[in-house]
């Protein structure tokens, strides 16, 4: 049975360093929640506090309404898959997968049955009697998943399980982890620094920054309605372009270009963010002149790395067609008013889209 | 940038020639070292297996014997307490190995897995105490055992040798546990295993090369010890073979043959240990260099 996890003002200090800074969040029962952020943002520490491997400095961890803050990991209904696949090197894969069941006192024949079932699901049935050292990285990761899965945990915690794997294996395992989630009645908490993994796998994403949750929402909202410049630039590849503007009357101005602003903007300066995919040659009214530096073909589309002419800011533009475009060219690209984000100079979002007619709508995570 | 270099890729000496030079120098070094090590050993063995009559036949020491004999060993068994000394050695050594290894595993685990004040200081003091010469410990230990009424007992022998062997053993195990990632234990805890169960199922198997190295080291210290037992034991019936064999020098009927025979007996166990556990010995020496 899946468990609802509530973090209540959860805080962890290591000496003078605040790793997790009063985090509040509720992970719904059965959800696939991803904690994503750059290294040092506190995501792994948060996961370890959920597991009971770190004791919070302050705050509570609550499983289904029950305070488990002071409970040792053994007494929590969890399984963990570690980053470096902590498979016991002196046990066969079968023993590794079955270890949790053995601790629970499940008889050997039933244990074997369940291990083999999990192995079949993860396509490692013929690896069961090998030692972990004989397996490839991807197979080891599958065994680790199997060991977590076979215990039928209420909470499955995954700490960057794919960071050591190559891109193709990551794609395969991404699908398998999602299948696992469907087969398993468990709340999954997945830690990664890879926004791509977060976006593709999660029901909900908690984007973390220096110890706090910047935004906690489903992937679509995180992409379409980022609450800050940090959220907008962290999610999406290539990263969101952000340009500084000065405010003159009801318009934002940079160089010879200007765009209309929503009526209630009172700041002297603003920043406008636009995703590379929303820019086009010619394009809409949010327009900027760029020098093309490098063109990267990606198959169906091209990423144009360019330098904007007013402040020399580096920008990326994703185009379907680059015929007639070469490095060194100067070209004007633009986006529609609806497709940009308006930030204040501190990076907080002021509006989604610049249409002066429609009032700004801001959802805070 | 590679011009004019003798060795390495692209050097003036061809790769094949470099390999040949390496092989030849390796074997040459091994040969010279073997000569130095094996000559005394050969003399010990060859003297011990000859009867006194053949040993000095012809006026000089016979180094290539025509006939072998076990008479020296028979003399030892029949006329001396060699068997008793040997058993004492085994008993004392076993005690030291068990105590020192247990102590170092517990300390190593504690020093790496728990946070407590003064941890670094403890570790430094432990290593520093290893640098102190054993004889410095002898008098204080004598006084301590005297006060506890433990002098002249196997317990005193075991404890005093452990005092010499333990600091380095603890340091070795501490280093070893630092190389065992705690993630294995955390993984076991998350599977529901208690701390003790985790120690049994995960920690001890993973630490095995470490504690076998420690056991071998403790064995070597205890088996070869002369100083500490000499200080704390006075009853000759408790003497280990190192001390016991030194008594032979005073006996009239003990000649070179018997002396070398007892040396062969002393060398037996270390030789067997080195023979069967050499992989673990090498792993122990490699600690911290992985």
CATH topology of the largest domain in chain B: MetI-like fold
Span between N and C termini of chain B? 31 Å
Structural class of chain A: alpha+beta
Gyration radius of chain B (Cα, Å) is 25 Å
Instruction: Describe the global form of chain A.
Output: elongated
Order of helices and strands of chain A: EEEHEEEHHHEHEHEEHHEEEEEEEEEEE
Please tell me the overall pLDDT of chain A.
Answer: 89
Largest interface: A-B, 21 and 17 residues
Mean pLDDT of chain B: 84
Q: Characterize the overall form of chain B.
A: flat
Strand content of chain B: under 5%
Count of DSSP E strands of chain B? 0
Largest sheet composition of chain B:
none
Strand element count of chain A: 21
Secondary structure tally, helices of chain B:
13
Main beta sheet of chain A:
6 strands, mixed
Low-confidence spans of chain B: pLDDT under 50, at least 5 residues?
none
CATH superfamily of the largest domain in chain B: MetI-like
Domains of chain B (count): 2
Describe this structure in words.
The complex is a heterodimer of chains A (365) and B (290). The longest helix of chain A is centred in the middle third of the chain and has 17 residues, at 167-183. With 365 residues, chain A is α+β, with helices and mostly antiparallel strands. Chain A contains eight helices and 21 strands. Chain A is elongated. Chain B is mainly α. Chain B contains 13 helices and no strands. The mean pLDDT of chain B is 84.
Which helices and strands occur, and which strands form pairs?
The complex is a heterodimer of chains A (365) and B (290).
Chain A: E1 5-14, E2 17-27, E3 32-36, H1 43-51, E4 58-63, E5 66-67, E6 78-81, H2 93-104, H3 108-121, H4 137-150, E7 155-159, H5 167-183, E8 187-192, H6 195-201, E9 204-209, E10 212-217, H7 219-224, H8 229-234, E11 241-248, E12 251-254, E13 257-260, E14 269-274, E15 280-281, E16 286-297, E17 302-308, E18 314-319, E19 330-335, E20 340-343, E21 349-352
Parallel strand pairs in A: 3-8, 3-9, 6-7, 7-8
Antiparallel strand pairs in A: 1-2, 1-4, 4-5, 9-10, 11-12, 11-14, 12-13, 14-20, 15-19, 16-17, 16-19, 17-18, 20-21
Helix pairs in contact in A: 2-3, 2-4, 3-4, 4-5
Chain B: H1 15-48, H2 52-55, H3 71-79, H4 82-113, H5 119-131, H6 134-147, H7 154-178, H8 183-190, H9 195-224, H10 227-232, H11 241-248, H12 256-276, H13 278-285
Helix pairs in contact in B: 1-12, 3-12, 4-7, 4-9, 4-11, 5-7, 6-7, 7-9, 8-9, 9-13, 11-12
């Amino acid at each position: 049975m899946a468990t609802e996890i509530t973090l209540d003002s959860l805080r962890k200090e290591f000496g003078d360093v605040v790793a997790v800074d009063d985090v509040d969040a509720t992970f719904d029962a059965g959800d696939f929640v991803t904690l994503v952020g750059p290294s040092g943002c506190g995501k792994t520490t948060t996961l370890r506090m959920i597991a009971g491997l770190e004791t919070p400095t302050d705050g509570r961890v609550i499983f289904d309404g029950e305070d488990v803050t002071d409970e040792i990991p053994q007494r929590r209904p969890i399984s963990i898959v570690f980053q470096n696949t902590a498979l016991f090197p002196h046990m066969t894969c079968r023993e590794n997968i079955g270890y949790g069941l053995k601790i629970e006192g499940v008889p050997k024949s039933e244990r074997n049955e369940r291990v083999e079932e999990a192995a079949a699901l993860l396509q490692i049935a013929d690896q069961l009697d090998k030692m972990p050292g004989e397996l490839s990285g991807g197979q080891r990761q599958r065994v680790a998943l199997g060991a977590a899965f076979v215990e039928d945990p209420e909470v499955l915690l995954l700490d960057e399980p794919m960071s050591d794997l190559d891109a193709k294996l990551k794609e395969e395992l991404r699908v398998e982890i999602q299948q696992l989630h469907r087969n398993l009645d468990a709340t999954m908490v997945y830690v990664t620094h890879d926004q791509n993994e977060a976006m593709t796998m999660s029901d909900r994403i908690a984007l973390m920054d220096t110890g706090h949750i910047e935004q906690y929402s489903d992937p679509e909202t995180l992409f379409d309605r980022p609450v800050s410049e940090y959220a907008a630039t962290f999610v999406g590849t290539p990263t969101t372009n952000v340009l500084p503007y000065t405010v003159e009357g009801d318009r934002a101005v940079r160089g010879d270009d200007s765009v209309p602003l929503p009526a209630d903007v009172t700041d002297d300066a603003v920043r406008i963010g636009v995703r590379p995919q929303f820019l086009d040659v010619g394009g809409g009214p949010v327009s900027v002149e760029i020098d093309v530096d490098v063109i990267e073909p990606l198959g169906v589309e091209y990423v144009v790395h360019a330098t904007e002419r007013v402040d020399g800011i580096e920008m990326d533009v994703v185009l379907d067609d680059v015929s007639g475009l070469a490095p060194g060219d100067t070209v004007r690209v633009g986006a529609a008013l609806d497709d940009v984000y308006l930030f204040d100079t501190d990076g907080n979002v002021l509006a989604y889209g610049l249409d002066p007619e429609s009032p700004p709508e801001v959802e805070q995570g | 940038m590679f011009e004019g270099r003798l060795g390495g890729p692209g050097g003036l000496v061809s790769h094949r020639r470099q390999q040949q030079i390496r092989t030849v120098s390796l074997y040459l070094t091994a040969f010279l070292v073997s000569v130095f090590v094996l000559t005394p050993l050969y003399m010990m063995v060859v003297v011990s297996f000859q009867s006194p009559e053949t040993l000095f036949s012809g006026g000089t020491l016979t180094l290539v014997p025509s006939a072998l004999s076990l008479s020296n060993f028979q003399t030892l068994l029949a006329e001396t307490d060699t068997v008793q000394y040997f058993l004492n050695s085994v008993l004392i050594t076993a005690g030291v190995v068990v105590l020192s290894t247990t102590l170092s595993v517990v300390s190593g685990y504690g020093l790496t897995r728990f946070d407590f004040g003064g941890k670094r200081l403890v570790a430094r003091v432990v290593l520093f105490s290893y640098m102190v010469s054993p004889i410095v410990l002898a008098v204080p230990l004598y006084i301590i055992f005297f006060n506890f009424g433990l002098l002249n007992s196997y317990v005193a022998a075991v404890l005093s040798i452990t005092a010499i062997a333990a600091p380095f053993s603890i340091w070795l195990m501490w280093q070893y546990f630092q190389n065992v990632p705690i993630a294995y234990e955390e993984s076991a805890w998350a599977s529901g295993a208690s701390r003790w169960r985790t120690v049994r199922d995960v920690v001890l198997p993973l630490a095995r090369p470490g504690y076998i190295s420690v056991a071998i080291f403790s064995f070597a210290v205890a088996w070869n010890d002369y100083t500490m037992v000499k200080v704390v034991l006075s009853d000759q019936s408790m003497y280990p073979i190192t001390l016991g064999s030194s008594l032979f020098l005073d006996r009239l009927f003990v000649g070179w043959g018997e002396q070398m025979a007892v040396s062969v007996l002393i060398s037996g166990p270390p030789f067997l240990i080195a023979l069967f556990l050499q992989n673990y010995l090498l792993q122990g020496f490699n600690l911290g260099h992985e």
